[in-house]
Amino acid sequence: MVSYKVRVATGNDRLAGTIHTISISLVGEKDESAKKSLAHQDTWIPGTVCELEVHSEQDLGELHSVRLYKDKILIEDAWYSQYVHVTCPAGNLYQFPVYQWIFGQANVLIPHGTASIMSSCDIIPEPRRIELAKIRDLYKWKPYSPGAPHCIDAENLSDLPYNEQYSTEKAYSFVMSLVSEQLQVAVRGLQNRTESWKNLEDIKDLFRFHRSDVCDTVSQIWREDNFFGYQYLNGNNPMIIRKCLQLPKNFPVSDSMVASSLGKSTNFHKELQNGNIFLADYKILEGIPPNDSINGKKQYITAPMCLLWKDPQDQLLPIAIQLGQTPGDQTPIFLRSDSEWDWTLAKMWVRSSDFQVHQTIYHLLHTHLFAEVFNIATHRQLPRNHPVYKLLIPHLRFTLDINTRARSDLIGPGGVFDQITVVGAKGIKSLLMKAMAELTYSGLCLPDDITARGLDAIPNFFYRDDGKIIWEATKSFVSSIVRYYYKSDESVRTDPELQAWVAEIYDKGFLSNPSSGIPSSLEDVSSLVTYLTMVIFRCSAQHAAVNSGQFDYYGWMPNGPSTMKSPPPTAKGVTTLQTILETLPDVNTTTTSLLVVAQLSNEPEDQRRLGDYPDVHFTETTPQKYIQEFQEKLDEISKKINKRNQTRMLPYLYLDPKVIENSISI
């Protein structure tokens, strides 16, 4: 008789314990032990560690798995296990990371914690194939909309795999935050007011139930040109501006038009050649049908072009705006020298267009939807003891939950976006299709994207500066992990599970579009490092950059109108403050929009910051050392960012590692 000492840890979530019977067997290279039940008192109390002995008639040999059984008793119940540790008679310790919910009647095979990869000549063990088949039944694909990435086959939260749903703490925090703000709005009757605002100052009344220092500042400086330009670098959407070395033919800005903005000693075309002119082009909005279901009123959308100039003081200033893609008498080019309200309204139209592109393309598509694809493919193609699975799983936490909520309540037909945005649910799908057709791999890799847009040298670009050092820190960490497990380029090429993972992402996520430059296979260690860095950065830092400042910059609605109720002006000299008030969203639309951006900017409880890995998926000493080095580097980056922010009226807060969530969970 051989005796093994076993420790089984129940999680700390308030509902982690179970009233059901939990049993365990040990699986070795020679045999599998009989089932041994855990004591009930050791599994129903959260945070408990159960110690027991499992006996076998013979030595099981090298342990490669443990099997956890859950026997259902009358009602549905879930149990969360953290880990299983087994000490053999010879004193060898085997660690089996679990970190998952086991729901209903089930038995789950948990592999040994040492990560391993296969080669194409290896035969996949039968238990490994069975476990992956079970997981694929839970993680099924379905089309979201034509031309968009596929998503999880789940209509609501209860359809999701149990391990993808919010924890009790996070779900409670999310709901209570929303209910609290909705009640404050309801008490004041703002949701029922379908009229225009009487004056701009009244909008500040909404700050009574939610505010931030940055938003307060924005409400004071939103009409200043230098702030308008600043947002293209450090606002919610630092993704669209690019250097302009030659004017588009459909944007006929002349020297005389902008001479007064540039000053007598500055030549416009010389500034073009010197790389001091930049362009924000919203051509992708052309042809998107406007949403006409907001308060029964017609809404308007346009595809503007905005030209900006970096002045000698390194300020980025708008100098010309065309509210459409076709120049002509009905599409005047608005200039800084125009009347106060003409210029203000033109800039507001640009900000409204930026809102649509930001929310749909750079927030929804480039972070949420792609992260969902990474999540599903990772579960379907990579076993739990694969090093890439272990590396990525912390960065996929709760993404399917928030995305399912979004499709149901936010971006679906009749959802909140149908109530507040000019693109609405129908326009979102059209925009996604257009954006997918233009997608490039370089656009998903921050350093390449910055270079492609000609923004390597523009000053005061904190998204670039902070993003690059986080990208490099992440890449260094990923490289260390990858090179520890993959000793050669050949080992990357011949890993069938890794290649199946990349191929499925290419197919289901990037729709097998070869012109995108996105790889369908990986040929060497270097390409794997870049690809994994892209995935982790998308799921953490990039989402923080385009999500966390939403209330700060959209909380003051005129700085980011979610829709416009009057058509773009076709002539100059006719705009008044009353015109602007009648063009802006109604009171109830503004209020709902404010609730949305406040909720989306506020990460619920049960947070895990970038580099925080409390679940010990890597059990080997060397990868744990790499994790510690990554955490230390992120601490250094955070200190550097905070030191810089102390000297700025508008601090750039969103890429401080201390506030970046590991995954997209809001």
How are strands sequenced across the largest beta sheet? Answer: 11-12-13-14-15
Structural class by secondary-structure content: alpha+beta
The fraction of residues assigned to DSSP E strands is 5-15%
Number of strands: 15
CATH class category label of the largest domain = Mainly Alpha
Oligomeric state as shown: single chain
Q: Calculate the terminal CA-CA distance, rounded to whole Å.
A: 52 Å
CATH architecture of the largest domain: Up-down Bundle
Evaluate the radius of gyration. 27 Å
Helix share, percent: 40-55%
Q: What characteristic shape results from the CA principal axes? A: elongated
Biggest sheet statistics: 5 strands, antiparallel
Number of domains: 2
Please count the helical segments. 21
What name is given to the CATH topology of the largest domain? Lipoxygenase-1, domain 5
Provide the descriptors you would attach to this structure in a database record.
single chain, 666 residues, alpha+beta, Lipoxygenase-1, Lipoxygenase-1, domain 5, 2 domains, 5-stranded antiparallel β-sheet, 4-stranded antiparallel β-sheet, 21 helices
Description:
The protein is an alpha+beta fold and 666 residues long. The chain folds into 2 domains: 2-113, Lipoxygenase-1; 128-238 and 352-666, Lipoxygenase-1, domain 5 (Up-down Bundle), CATH 1.20.245. 41% of the residues lie in helices and 14% in strands. It is built from 21 helices and 15 strands. The chain has helices spanning 126-138, 168-187, 213-221, 225-234, 255-262, 268-273, 340-381, 387-392, 399-410, 416-420, 424-438, 441-444, 446-452, 462-485, 489-493, 496-509, 525-547, 550-554, 577-583, 587-600, 621-645, and strands at residues 2-10, 21-28, 36-37, 49-56, 63-71, 78-87, 93-103, 106-111, 141-142, 151-152, 242-243, 277-281, 305-310, 316-322, 333-335. The chain has a 5-stranded antiparallel sheet, sandwiched between helices. Strands 4-1-6-7 form a 4-stranded antiparallel sheet, with no helix packed on it. Strands 3-2-5-8 form a 4-stranded antiparallel sheet, with helices on one face. α14 (462-485) runs antiparallel to α21. It is elongated, with a radius of gyration of 27 Å. 47% of the residues are buried. The mean pLDDT is 95.
